[in-house]
Prior knowledge:
It is a single chain. By secondary structure, the protein is an alpha+beta fold. The protein has 2 helices and 2 strands; from the N terminus they run H-H-E-E. It has helices spanning 4-7, 11-21, and strands at 27-35, 43-50. A hairpin with a 7-residue loop joins strand 1 and strand 2 (43-50).
Amino acid sequence: xxxxxxxxxxxxxxxxxxxxxxxxxxxxxxxxxxxxxxxxxxxxxxxxxxx
Length: 51
């Protein structure tokens, strides 16, 4: 199993960059799921609710 830093293909950095550019938003909820693995590449789904 790969650590999330490798499996996300830079997605975490991209999200953090977007958040740093939009400082006036308020995050209300974050959900994350991951599927795949053994025979297929992992698929990450991240949902960020904000106002």
